[in-house]
Amino acid sequence: MKPINVGLLGIGTVGGGTWTVLNRNAEEITRRAGRPIQISVVADKNLDLAKQVTGGKCRLTDDAFAVVADPAVDIVVELIGGYGIAKELVLKAIENGKHVVTANKALLAVHGNEIFAAAQKKGVMVAFEAAVAGGIPIIKALREGLTANRIQWIAGIINGTTNFILTEMRDKGLPFDVVLKEAQRLGYAEADPTFDIEGVDAAHKITLMSAIAFGIPVQFDKAHIEGISQLDAQDIKYAEQLGYRIKLLGITKRTPEGVELRVHPTLIPAKRLIANVEGAMNAVLVQGDAVGSTLYYGKGAGAEPTASSVIADLVDITRMHTADPGHRVPHLAFQPDQLADLKVLPIGEVQTSYYLRMRVEDKPGVLADITRILADQQISIDAMIQREPAEGEQQTDIIMLTHLTREKQVDAAIRLIESLPVVTGRLIRLRLESLN
Q1: For 110, phi and psi rounded to 5 degrees?
Q2: Per-residue pLDDT tens for 80-134?
Q3: Distances (CA, A) of 126 to 248, 310, 317, 349
């Protein structure tokens, strides 16, 4: 049977992994897809690298636009990344009637609505399993495996760099800056790690999962994003004493008021499976009304794990290549004309529990002043630690965990507590999720 011809844009880490796995497992993949899948042309600015990876076994070019215009190419795999040229290439491929596979979460989180609409109009598929959690098949699980469920919430460790840093900070008690340098030395963190450590990468991914889970348009601009660069090793230690681990979570929830969409460091009970996901691994916890909790765990990055997802998409498209477009799985799981207009809640309207740490003068009546402010804001305390001051010290730390509270009430309480003359410096606030 005539092979499906693939045009590969970018043969860096993931592109090289895709070439290797597709060739190594060619027989197995053909048996599953029903016909051979072959990369017939590779576009990369670095032709020497492309020749080295492919051994010259396919056509090479430095002109990606020639690939998306090539009538012999059936599927375009975009592994260039970023919002700029990648968007042009993807839209041009769609315009030329080609299916697209991409690992580009940033592109889809920001421009997904436009790209999916163009693909729908042209009757082609855009597949993006590799865009979220590397080798973990979470997009397929949400779009197909859990299709009977009303998804209630998703919480994911979906950035390996930050999870590695938090694991090292906890295990070794080291400050963030020291661990970041080590992560860069080991290749877990980029030279410019901003997207990872400030939560942007995780926000791209949770935005896509939220759209699929709840059948809403992609709305990255409404996500609340906090990273881990301001996290103090001291808070990791206190959390541990209270029976919690701190993880950078992407969280999306369906509530009666609307959808929560947020990324931030989060305290999780240490007994939860997801709290024990260490190093650079990823994990996504999904709560459905029928199935309950399901956990997806694995490598969230790397050449071959991500290539595994790219090739799974190639196989899916090959199988559905000749199917009527109306019978394919919709891009965001729900039929395009059935997407809901649910409000994405601003962070002030979100309800969760909180970890509060404040540095106070060791005087009578301090605790009474603080608890009165919390009570006035209808914030109830679940647990508390008050450290004995070290010998000769006049100040101490108070750590409190609250019950479920609306964020704007906590914001108001923090302003009032910080204005007390007995409170020194700023109050540290972290969110807490029980995930049960």
Answers
A1: -95, -40
A2: 999 899 999 999 999 999 999 999 999 999 999 999 999 999 999 999 999 999 8
A3: 29, 12, 9, 34
Cα–Cα distance measured from residue 148 to residue 413, given in angstroms and rounded to the nearest whole number: 42
* Number of residues assigned to the chain: 436
Neighbours of 256 (CB within 10 A): 4
User: Is 265:95 a contact under the CB 8 Å cutoff?
Assistant: no
Domain annotation for the chain: domains and CATH numbers: 4-135+303-338 (3.40.50.720), 138-299 (3.30.360.10), 351-432 (3.30.70.260)
Active-site residue 181, yes or no?
no
- Rounded Cα gap, residues 252 and 250, in angstroms: 7
Q: Other C-beta atoms within 10 Å of 174: how many? A: 16
Q: pTM, whole model, 2 decimals?
A: 0.95
Of the candidates 87, 98, 205, 253, the residue annotated as catalytic is 205
In DSSP terms, 225 is beta-bridged to 263
Tell me whether strands 395-402 and 381-386 are parallel, antiparallel or unpaired: antiparallel
C-alpha distance across the termini of the chain, in Å: 50
